[in-house]
TrEMBL record:
<protein>
    <submittedName>
        <fullName>Uncharacterized protein</fullName>
    </submittedName>
</protein>
Length: 67
């Protein structure tokens, strides 16, 4: 599963940003362990995770603006 899809699915189900982020972190750690031999793939996963962190910040800002 793509990390971004996982993030959005958990966020949609729980509406809990921290939980969604934590689940993605755990999934990333699982993948990191299995991808240690392939540095290029690990860099891609790392880049995707950093993108998720940026999205998380944007979602928080939107929630703050709504309140």
């Amino acid at each position: 599963m793509i990390l971004l899809d996982l993030f959005y699915n958990v966020l949609a189900e729980t509406d809990d940003l921290e939980k969604a982020s934590e689940i993605v972190k755990k999934e990333l750690l699982k993948r990191k362990v299995s991808l240690v031999k392939s540095q290029d793939t690990y860099e891609y996963v790392k880049m995707r995770y950093e993108n998720l962190l940026e999205l998380e910040k944007k979602v928080r800002k939107v929630k703050e603006l709504k309140n």
